[in-house]
# Entry
Amino acid sequence: MSDCLFCKIVAGDIPADKVYEDDDVFAFRDISPQAPTHFLVIPKKHLSDLSAVNEDHEKLIGKLVRIGAELAAQEGLDGGYRVIFNNGPDGGQIVYHIHMHILGGRQLRGPLG
Ligand code: AMP
Ligand code: ZN
# Structure
């Protein structure tokens, strides 16, 4: 989508601190990190939020999770990490291109909401 920030990052039109890229998945560091390690894993395909996910995307979303876990290990998050999808207005989603936050490098505390 032409007006989507994360599509522009995937296309290279907006710079990002890339962590990983393959044909389907792109990962980059969050511009406003909330933990010592904070990166986003996204599908290259534009999917606005989880309501856009259908059976055709099951393999892609599974891959997103696998790549996220592999990158977390690569980043040395041996003590664990938190994985977050903010979804929709009440979920605090700001960018409407599905993204999986991975945060780690410190003890994450607090309730989920
Ligand atoms: P949310 O939609 O609330 O799950 O979060 C969007 C995330 O994208 C926030 O954590 C932002 O800091 C992050 N973000 C926004 N713009 C950029 C950018 N240009 N590069 C990297 N991360 C970004
Ligand atoms: Zn997009």
Remarks:
- Residues 1, 4, 6-7, 46, 97 surround zinc ion (ligand 2) (CB under 6 Å).
- The domain at 5-104 is CATH 3.30.428.10 (HIT family, subunit A).
- The longest helix spans residues 58-74.
